[in-house]
Amino acid sequence: MKKSFMSLVVLLAVVLAFTGCSKEESGASRTFVTIGTGGVTGVYYPTGGAISKMVNKKYDEYGIKATVESTGGSVFNVNAIMAGDLEFGVVQSDRQFQAYNGTADWEEAGAQEKLRAVFSIHPESVTLLAADDAGIESFEDLKGKVVNIGNPGSGQRGNAIDAFEAYGMDVETDISAEGLKAAEAAKMLQDGRIDAYFYTVGHPNGSFKEATSGARKAHFVAIDDIDSLLEKYSYYAASYVPVSEYPGASNEGNVNTFGVKATLCTSADVSDEVVYALTKEVFENLDEFKGLHPAFAVLTQESMLAGLSAPLHPGAEKYYREVGLIK
Ligand code: GLU
Fold first, then answer.
1. Fewest CB atoms within 10 A around its CB: which of 54, 112, 161, 321?
2. Is any atom of ligand 1 closer than 6 Å to the C-beta of 279?
3. Is 270 a pocket residue for ligand 1 (Cβ < 6 Å)?
């Protein structure tokens, strides 16, 4: 009895010691940071893994230990960074713009003035996949179908709503909209529970591999009536789905759509030292970093400074000035 009480006390002390230095501010020589990502079958999750790998390799030098958290996506990540629950998060470039300017999902909460940009990463396309047996050949065919537009914390939900708007359709009345997390969507399509789903994501990714290699055949659907979208929102650009990445899909040739970029965000409250170290390790080891996911193949140091709309975090800015990437 006495012994078990003592071990409980010891356990409690250990737990307290660890939680005591679990945040970025605390601990003189050790700093723990968490990177918010997305669903495990997307690209954000391995992206967080790749970034943390670069930083953690230099633990002896910086004393920084980065860990990755699977989350609901961009909107969740921005809000968790602002609440101080995450130090970093992968965030769609359109979401970064909206959060910093207090539009879309942040219209009520207002401008997220402490949001800071670190760098941008891979391109993401607003991707629509439909089951072959659902009778969806064009975007307009979504009318009356069961369509997953994404969970409220995701980036894709807003993109799907914008796409329907561009086609003069309404998610509330024209379709039966589901709000499932991206990681569940592929299985739901295969199980016949949904007809189609949207996912704003880099390619290739596990979600569409899973959804195009099951018994229920599926194909990507073009979202190409987008002139009004590109005109209205500066953060959207024309893009496509590289169909050859998914040999199981019933398409022939790439499918046009629109897209954004994945970016890394943080808060003005995160220290310059931590952001500097993380930025430096990714940029100085860019070839190794690019080898960690095929979606990173197109990255260059210069491209990683494009597509940012929140101010650069001073820690990242310091590194970019040092190496002459900005003047
Ligand atoms: N773009 C998605 C989002 O913001 C996540 C994509 C991914 O996990 O790769 O929610």
1. 321
2. no
3. no
Q: Which domains does the chain have, with CATH numbers?
A: 30-123+261-322 (3.40.190.10), 124-259 (3.40.190.10)
In whole angstroms, what is the distance from residue 1 CA to residue 6 CA? 9
CA distance 283 to 289: 8
Q: How many angstroms does the Cα of residue 9 sit away from the middle of ligand 1?
A: 42
DSSP 34-59: EEE---TTSSHHHHHHHHHHHHHTTH
Q: What are 125-160's pLDDT values in tens digits?
A: 999 999 999 999 999 999 999 999 999 999 999 999
pLDDT digit string, tens, across residues 190-225: 999 999 999 999 999 999 999 999 999 999 999 999
Please report which helix (H) or strand (E) contains residue 125, including its range. strand 115-131
pLDDT in tens, 67-107: 999 999 999 999 999 999 999 999 999 999 999 999 999 99
Give the closest residue to 308 by CA, choosing from 272, 277, 288, 279: 279
> Other C-beta atoms within 10 Å of 253: how many?
8
